[in-house]
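Contributing new records

If you add data, match the layout below exactly. Sequence lines come first and carry their own label; structure lines follow with theirs. Keep one chain per record. Anything else will be rejected by the validation script.
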Amino acid sequence: MDYERALVVFAHPDDAEFLCGGTIALWTEGGTEVDYVCATDGSAGWNGPDRGRDEIASTRADELRAAADVLGVKEVRFLGFVDGSLQANLDLRRAVTREVRRSRPDVIVAPDPSMLWSGRSYINHPDHRAVGEAVLAVVACDAPTRPQFPELLDEGLEPFKVNGLWLSTEHREADTKIDIGATIDRKVEALRAHASQIANMGEFDVDARIREWAAAIADEDGMEYAEAFRTFHLED
């Protein structure tokens, strides 16, 4: 699976590293040009009374750029929607379509919108689901259809058909697992760049937990560490 250009679309500034940081590192090492699109401003990513939304949004933007540098990402773009209020509406779909038509990627990576929870200890954030749902609409309808969002034509952004879609998902639903044994150290390093989020998680050992989760995905597949995806090759 060799791609020239990949676009990773996600809700919050640390999502890409958690979901697919090892795969991104593999791709950039192999010559794939990877761009990021972060849908929200990340401004709800701090629970303490000592920082306002503007301050935490600025901090998280800097952290994401640092994490992207670790993984070899070429460009980071922010759509600027308010953290915690994302909806898969026409505004979000238009904004993502703009970036898809601008980047013209071979593959888009996004969160799986069908994932509502994991086990009995985690409920998936509604922003994650919203951005995944919006990406499905963009791929199926918005990006390749000329009458959709004609204002983008006025910006010089012609329709574009995306052929590859990878949804980061629960490993039970995955059809593709990527061996990240060679890049898990870079995934961990990139996550450490999100210092405000690690602090917000309290007693969270990044290295140990990331290896634990990646090992669980790789279980019984002959790998030590892996990331899991539900993949689509969309016909022309």
